[in-house]
């Protein structure tokens, strides 16, 4: 729902403004001017210019909208029984993906579209203004193309994840041929990215390399699910192929960390998934200390992480992974933008993930005077208002 339209808007009463812009840092008693869908001015409230309309946020903290760079929103059904079994001691296995694939194939287009729309709305209500989402619960040419088409109706950054699991009864290499051939052709018009689950029980490094190479040749950017369930070659492969991100990274070696630090590949950690699978937490502190770029994402999906709450992920990264609040906020905003290569704007596509002149006017106002409250009051509904593309979309 749009509460106000474009035009210039002066936002005052900002007790703390986390711009997440390296040149601007964190400002107190700040103001922001929005013009159309972009930020036109940022600075101290005492020097703010006039605008068509003014909004006083009453001494609250403002930060960029979350940039959630890893979700799987195109699905039907739930796996609560699998979750309960896991909480009783069973290990997570990639095979659960097949259960969701069955439920997703059975849903008609209108139902699937409504489910995705609802999840995007839910994320927005919690301050997420940019989202990536994936296919991966279709796993036939027709079902992957349908998932991609439905996702693209709601989300700008759609990822082809035909290589999520080898469907039951199919030969893995024959399935990879399908992924690299007719499936890729069918999804390509709807997607910007390609991803592969490079893991035991899913795809080998060699199969993953084939998928990523074919997708790169088709003009897609690359991402990798890597080193989630155990050590392996996912991180090294992601760096080798120049992937924008490698996600999960629970089991990394010193060589993996060094390779990430020396590369442009963002290490995306998924705190809610780590809790929900009782996995060793991804070493976000170690990665940051080594000089890698870290993103925090929700990994919203019915198997390993059914939450769209980036605030929960940020709180977990602070409370459990050893990040400071500013580090976690940066990883969940600018870090996500870097993972989606949206941190630098172009004339027709403004940057996201930071609050600076020219960036997209995506603002998240907390019902708190500082961002510290995100971790200090974990689990509390702290979103007070959201602007997306210059429009106030959450009151
Ligand atoms: O990112 N790791 C692979 N894919 C999802 C889980 C998918 C599922 O279990 O349904 C993830 O955790």
Automatic annotation (TrEMBL):
Its EC number is 3.5.2.7. Zn(2+) binds at residues 70, 72, 225, 299. N-formimidoyl-L-glutamate binds at residues 137, 301, 303. Residues 62-368 form the Amidohydrolase-related domain. Pathway: Amino-acid degradation; L-histidine degradation into L-glutamate; N-formimidoyl-L-glutamate from L-histidine: step 3/3. Binds 1 zinc or iron ion per subunit. Pfam families: Amidohydro_1 (PF01979). It is an enzyme of class 3 (hydrolase). It is found in: Cytoplasm. Fe(3+) binds at residues 70, 72, 225, 299. Its main location: cytoplasm. The keyword Metal-binding applies. Keywords: Cytoplasm, Histidine metabolism, Hydrolase, Iron, Metal-binding, Zinc. 4-imidazolone-5-propanoate binds at residues 79, 137, 164, 228, 304. Catalyzes the hydrolytic cleavage of the carbon-nitrogen bond in imidazolone-5-propanoate to yield N-formimidoyl-L-glutamate. It is the third step in the universal histidine degradation pathway. This is Imidazolonepropionase. It comes from Tersicoccus solisilvae. The lineage of its organism: Bacteria, Bacillati, Actinomycetota, Actinomycetes, Micrococcales.
